[in-house]
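Suppose a colleague, Dr. K., hands you the sequence of a protein chain of 207 amino acids and asks what its three-dimensional shape might be. Before reaching for any lab equipment, you can write down a predicted structure in C-alpha cell form. Begin with the sequence itself:
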Amino acid sequence: MTDKMIADLWFDPSCPYTWVTSRWLLEVEKVRPVEVRWHVMSLSVLNEGREEDPEGDPEGYLWVPVRICAAVRQEYGQEALKRLYTAMWTCDRGEQDWIGSLHDALTAAGLPLELAEAGMSTAYDDAVRASHAEGIGLIGEHVGTPVVAVTGAGGERIVFFGPVTSRIATGEQAGRLWDGTLLVAGTPGFHELKGVPHERPRLDDLR
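The predicted structure, expressed as C-alpha cells, is then:
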C-alpha cells in the first residue's frame, strides 16, 4: 500500500476562503493518498503591531474561535479539531458568510460546552502563538491563512499559502488542483501565482 502524504494545514477558523481550501483538502483525501493534519494559526497574531489591521477587528473578536480551536486541539486532539472546524461552518450559519453559533458547533462536534469559555480567556494563547509560529515560520509573514506544508518525494519540504479559491473543487478536479499546486509550489525559486480577482466564496457547495 502506498504511504499517504501528510498535508499539514494551518488555518484561522474565521476565514471563509480558508474554509473553502479545507473542504478541498478533504476532497483531495478521497482521490489521492493524502492525509490532512489540522493546526491553528491566527490572523490576530499575524497582524499584531501593524499600523492598520487588514481584518478590521479592533475588538479582537477573531481571538475567540481560534482560542477555542486551540483548546480543543490541545485537550482532545486532531480529530476533535477537525469535527469542530466542520461544525463551525455548518451549524446555524444561515445566510451569513461567517461561522455560526460556537456553542452549537461544540455540541455538534460532541465536545463539552465549557470549552466556549476558552474563547474569552488567555489560557490557550500560548498554544495559539506556538502553533501559529510553527506554520508561519515555514513560509514567512508575507502570507495569511491558510498555510499548507507537505514533504515531497525527495524529502524536500513544500510549503504554500492557499490555494485561495471561491469554489470547492471536488472529485478528480480536486486531485488535479492538488497535483498542480505541488508542482508549482515545489519548483525551486517559486514565489507567487495569482488568478482573477476575488469573488464571494461559495461556502455551501458540498451541502
